[in-house]
Please model this.
Amino acid sequence: MVHLQEDGRLVTTVYRKPADTDRYLSFSSQHPSMHKRAVVKSLMDRAEKIPTTKSDRSKEKQRVISTLQSNGYPKRFILDASKPKPPLKDIINSAESGRGYSTIPYVSGTSEPIKRILENHGIKVAFKPHQTRAGERWGKRQNSAEQCHELYESVARGKR
Model:
């Protein structure tokens, strides 16, 4: 939000909608830790870059920390995740020296240790969903014609 000071200066602060609930991805959710880090990083970056004054930045960072803690995030995780990343050239150099790339299904408590082991051997790892909501609804994979037919029938019966 932009405010006009009495002396004519413009001051910016973080805007929140009136309906804002301060609910973010719960720390106890079954998501990869990289997604949780991204929540912390984006909120802390916003707290650093939008407010004009040091006091507003400090207040906003404290609010972010408090909000994340109310969403189950440990303070140590918040502080670690908000640290600056290495320069892009270092990331590119390490990626070029890697031996390969792998995509594995995300299973809480299992996938992240496997990722650490593979990355220790120079293999980059990305996660994919183990089971999607669509997979839960339809069970085994069906071709699109079967899905359309079942969807049409469920709508016709008023189940949707």
In short: The chain has seven helices and four strands. The longest strand covers residues 100-106.
